[in-house]
Amino acid sequence: MATKGCVTIPTDVGIDKEMQEVIKRWGADAIRDCDGTKLSSDLQNLNLKMYSTYLPTRNDQEWAKSNMDQLQQLYVVSESNIALDTTISIDIMKGFYKEQFKPNTKDDIKSLWEVVDRTTGEKIDSNKWIYDYEKNYVIVNDIIPFHEYTVSFLVYQIWDPTQMYNHLTNNWGDKPHEMPYDGRHPETFEHMKNYLQNWINENPEIDVVRFTTFFYHFTLIYNDQAKEKFVDWFGYSSSLSKECLDEFEKEKGYRLRAEDIIDEGYYNSPFRIPTKEYLDFVDFQSKFVATNAKEFVDIAHNAKKEAMMFLGDNWIGTEPYGKYFESIGLDAVVGSVGNGTTMRMISDIPGVKYTEGRFLPYFFPDVFREGGDPVGEARENWTQARRAILRKPLDRIGYGGYLGLALQFPEFVDEVEKICEEFRTIHNNIQKTKAHTAPFKVAVLNCWGKLRSWQTNQVAHALWYKEIYSYVGVIECLSGMPLDVEFINFEDIRKGIPSDIGVIINAGDAMTSWSGGENWIDEDIITVLRRWVYEGGGFIGVGEPTAYQKQGKLFQLFDVLGVDRDLTYGLSYRKYNELTKEHFITEEIKEGFDFGEGKEGIFKKRDSVEILSIHKGDIALSTNNYGKGRAVYMSGLPYTPENCRLLLRSIYWVKNMENDMKEYYVSNVNTECAAFTEVGKMAVINNSFDNQTTDVYIKGELVETLTLKSGELVWMNIK
User: Fold this and answer.
1) At residue 2, does pLDDT exceed 60?
2) Which residues 6+ apart lie within 8 Å of 355 measured at CB?
3) 626: CB partners within 8 A, 6+ apart
4) Regarding the domain with residue range 441-656, which homologous superfamily does it belong to in the CATH classification?
5) Are the beta carbons of 348 and 342 closer than 8 angstroms?
6) Residue 568: which pLDDT band, with cuts at 50, 70 and 90?
7) What is the mean pLDDT of residues 177-183?
8) Domain extents for the chain?
9) Active-site residues: which are they?
10) Are strands 538-543 and 629-634 parallel, antiparallel or unpaired?
11) CATH class name, domain 72-157+236-269
């Protein structure tokens, strides 16, 4: 059994001897610096692979200060203002943190900025407004009293948002603010390349250049109290400039408006149904980033260094499931592992030699403090990610932050030692083979499809939000299931549903990109899906699937699902719900149902519907037969062990393959298994922190009953 390897740990200042002990205990074979630290000469002699963080857009602050007109920019929108007269003065910087942004008044503001009447949605003619350069006010004339007005405008980023976050979180009060510059400007890009080459020459000991990431940061806007105002881990708005808009027009044949980015003030949140213009912009920026990032990777490769990308911070334009990503030529991707979903988002990335996960907690003072629980967070993080690792493992794991903080918690050091050894044991046992999966694929259908694989219904990576946990649970459950999962969009449906897809899931709130909005009144999409289910396909809807209010219904596939949601238009119609108490889908759920926030007003539309759960008089879980196919409706599905089992059984039920579910199976919902038939081994895991007893099934037959300790993983021979 290996006792070393596959682990990367962060360094810190002044603890070289302590680090050597941790390296031995955790079996680390690689070390990395962290923002604000540098690898010491003593550590450089330990024969370990050495990573070094490289920040392409802010490593040279002298260049930033000398070229303030080439800093990165973004479109922002002012607060809404109600006109009380025919003239209004709008303080455009009200509500923004003035240390983060500065309005770009160098370029032609009349062609780049927009004043919009939000009551009508119309753009105000630029002749009707002027700008007060001293007060940062836009004064709009000849307008309609009691209409709402906003200003969309370009700002320079005079403080990098990640450095700002670290500054505030880690109390970097004495560190100067760093400004990000934009490689869209040819002279800045040439300087960036030359600076990288010089940096590599000056750091010959570095084996891996860890780009963080390349050019453009996700959208992160702070308010005037230095707190987050708007955050979108998927946002592209922080990559604009006059040069960008000019080049977009040349390539795509039309001019982007500010409103194409501002999007009524939503900044094209991933929950918005993307417009053609926005998708064109994502494609345009991704192509630019990939083309130019390749030059950075080539510089590293020419110096015999590996090139690794951090899937975070400045990752915009490097969509790992996009059509340009593999052309960058990266050796590896590393990202933060918040749960099984984010683990799969990293481990499934194509076109790289290896993937690495940065596990939680980060060694930051927000967790490593008196009253913090770093051991509990580490244990929970590993246990939730492990079930997904058994499906598509990362090649490496590691931690980030400042190691000196972690060393103050000896029990945490012990816990990570166990995690590292268990990770290596998984690799040793499975020997790069794939776990057994069902003989059909499950597809998640939304507006983004493959581009946002393992990224559905999320705002900021793995952070919890009340509005989304009932949907994120779907992909979190799927991340560790014995299933091959694909992400498809509505254009994929038009081309025809591939024969290897057995079940389609549509989960999200009405009118969001995840549910689909107006796509559900496209007769081609509707008829293709109806026919597919009727001929034997399986369909699962969660929340408000297929939702668009039209022609007397909200759920446009009401016939397939057998249910609809009443928005109070149908109160005059009587609704009758009769509960089915026993069903294949629910037979292992003993602790009651958890549908999260759920949905009200769900009612039966077909006699073939069986209602499995009712909440406040409304349907929360139901099944329907539709021709040769089947469908299941759920009002929500947070991640819980019970819900993982509920979804798994639903998938097999809608596929009409109940008898095949126990090919490799464990009975206790708090346990799961992964069978590696090529090597004759099966992992059985306890996902809880209590002892659990579970029956083990192989080929449908009960073969053994196991008792697992808290969080335990047990290996069985199955040859």
Assistant:
1) no
2) 332, 333, 334, 346, 347, 349, 394, 395, 396
3) 533, 534, 539, 559, 560, 562, 608
4) Class I glutamine amidotransferase (GATase) domain (3.40.50.880)
5) no
6) confident
7) 95
8) 7-59+184-227+275-430, 72-157+236-269, 441-656, 664-717
9) 313
10) parallel
11) mainly beta
